Amino acid sequence: MVVAQTLGCTVYSAVMNTDDTIYALATPWAESALAIIRTSGPDAISLSSKCFSRHDALLKAKSATLVHGYLVNPATLERIDEVVAAVYREGHGYTGENAVEFTCHGSLPGIQRILDVFASNGFRAAEPGEFTFRAFMHGRLDLTQAEAVQELVAARSAASQSLALSRLGGALKRRIEELKQEVLDIVSFVEVQLDYAEDEIGGDTTFPRLKLENVVAALEALAATWKTGRLYGQGARVVLAGATNAGKSSLFNLFLKEERAIVSDRHGTTRDFLEAWMQIEGIPVRLYDTAGLRDADDTIEAEGVRRTEHLLEQADLILLLVDGSQSDAKDLLARNASIAADPRTILVWNKSDLSCQAPPRDALVVSGRTGEGMDRLVSTLAGRLKGGVRASGDERLVIESDRQRDGLLQAAGALRRADGLERGAVPLDIVAMELNEALHALGELTGEATGADILERIFSGFCVGK
């Protein structure tokens, strides 16, 4: 693999040493019914057998088989835990190396004892993402699939999980390979033109502009799915804002369908923000209940207002609540005119269960107490979050990575420049340079020619054990 030849040992000096045999806890560090400890490397089976009660059974186990026994301390032969060992021979399993994965009981003291024994008997503790890195280095995954592993783990919605699973299965890799082959066909055409005189070639010598334009359109369309991928993968920040007693906490509880925020008629009850995750039509949303916006003399409340203003700057959408039952409701709205004018803002005229003032034309009328108007509010919120992007089905190819979006646009840009140069009758060897730039960008996406800095950025973001 080109990457393996060009990286040296600059990613992580330890990780690049694939001669080591590594271990890590692959499940969360928390009390549980079961836990999994992974090992991988040339000596994974032989080293594991020294810590296993059925030494020969583990050594002779075929790939993808389970062996029951006990993990023991080789120095004392003391039993540590009853386990099931899953054995994978070189060329199989997640990393493509010899590997043993132990399923043990989820006792934290027991897990720690196992890790200590491994550390004392020839294993090295794995770095973050090292198992997936080794899978990449051994050709088990390309970079788009490696990124999909992390995206799958971090998925916050069923749609995001499904889309990441599709990428892990190689859907994105296959699409990039198809587009790269189209570019290679164009490169081949140009190289023939450069190597032979026109009367020696025969056949159609017209530059394949339509093919190039189709590839550019496909690359840009795939890059445009990034917005959908990020929305379903990472979610959106929605901030409830408004004056004190506008009903933000009641609406917060209504969205969550639980009593999370304290509701009171007293002004300034919420002095800090509350946050919680929820889903709106499959979109993960991080919802914030904030301190009421007003000039506060109390230093604690003033700090709460400052934090509200900071959250408003970071919000994807703002729900600006106004207490429509107040006689000065229009004045309350005018005091927050700058927020109301923000294109991210949805105006919510609250407390419709009381006698309300006439709402502005663009306001959504709701009651945080009875739930009246919530269906329309949720529908409007979902529509604004999607921003005109249709919800993606399992079959649709969607990207989530900034790196992938940038690489696709880089390739498309190089092809556009090649098209412009050819139209301007620039020599074909210059056109070929841009075509090869597009090929390089596509190769970086899958990892055929990727720098150490990119690999380090990708794999260092993984958790230990993945």
Protein described:
With 466 residues, this protein is of the alpha/beta class. The chain folds into three domains: 2-141, Gyrase A, domain 2; 151-225 and 398-446, Four Helix Bundle (Hemerythrin (Met), subunit A) (Up-down Bundle); 233-386, P-loop containing nucleotide triphosphate hydrolases (Rossmann fold), CATH 3.40.50.300. 46% of the residues lie in helices and 17% in strands. It contains 19 helices and twelve strands. It has helices at residues 2-6, 44-50, 55-60, 108-119, 130-137, 143-154, 158-168, 171-195, 198-201, 209-224, 226-234, 248-256, 299-314, 329-335, 337-340, 374-386, 402-423, 428-446, 452-459; strands spanning 22-25, 32-40, 65-72, 79-88, 99-106, 124-125, 236-242, 274-280, 283-289, 317-323, 345-350, 364-365. The strands form two sheets. Strands 3-4-5-2-1-6 form a six-stranded mixed β-sheet. Helix 6 (143-154) runs antiparallel to helix 7 (158-168), helix 8 (171-195) runs antiparallel to helix 18 (428-446) and helix 17 runs antiparallel to helix 18. The longest helix has 25 residues, at 171-195. The model is unreliable at 1-15 and 390-395 (pLDDT under 50).
